Amino acid sequence: xxxxxxxxxxxxxxxxxxxxxxxxxxxxxxxxxxxxxxxxxxxxxxxxxxxxxxxxxxxxxxxxxxxxxxxxxxxxxxxxxxxxxxxxx
Length: 89
Hints:
The chain is mostly beta strands. The protein has a single domain (about 15-85), classed as Ubiquitin-like (UB roll), CATH 3.10.20. It is built from 1 helix and 7 strands; from the N terminus they run E-E-E-H-E-E-E-E. A 5-stranded mixed β-sheet has the order 2-1-7-4-5, with helices on one face. Strands 3-6 form a two-stranded antiparallel ribbon. The model is unreliable at about 1-5 (pLDDT under 50).
């Protein structure tokens, strides 16, 4: 019998913190859009709105940084995100 693990582990729930609030997500990575949706669940998107997303305690090789559009970030329990919204006017 092959010693490699055949069954993949199911996605586990991971606790992250977004703008000071805890949130549980499935999987070991999140996208830029995921984080904005968590930070501003009632919307707030538009052509004149920009977001800055920073993180610390990340789960990959890079444990802190800035998340840009179309980026994915590896996470672990306790990864923290700070999301700031700015109107371009």
